[in-house]
Amino acid sequence: MELWIGRLVRLLVALAVAAGVLWVGDWAVLRARVSHGTAFGTVQVNQFLATPLKGSKMEYDYMGTVPVTCSRSIFPQQGNSACWWVERHKAQWE
């Protein structure tokens, strides 16, 4: 049993290190793109407003289409979502 626990701990440590290295690499690539002016993009997103009504009902209103700034990276960076994520989730609810 101790053998399996040791292997599991080593696997978890290796996964954590790999995730950290991937995030640092993503950050470094984004910094290089910032210096070239290609780090950020915009995606047109549909915004909706959910308003609660009486009787546990909801009203959904279309607010319009707005451009959203996103980072061209794997992870969200510098307060912006990743472009690949925003492009797949074009509906924003408020």
From TrEMBL:
Source organism, top-level taxon: Bacteria
This protein's name: Uncharacterized protein
Species name: Tunturiibacter gelidiferens
Origin organism lineage: Bacteria, Pseudomonadati, Acidobacteriota, Terriglobia, Terriglobales
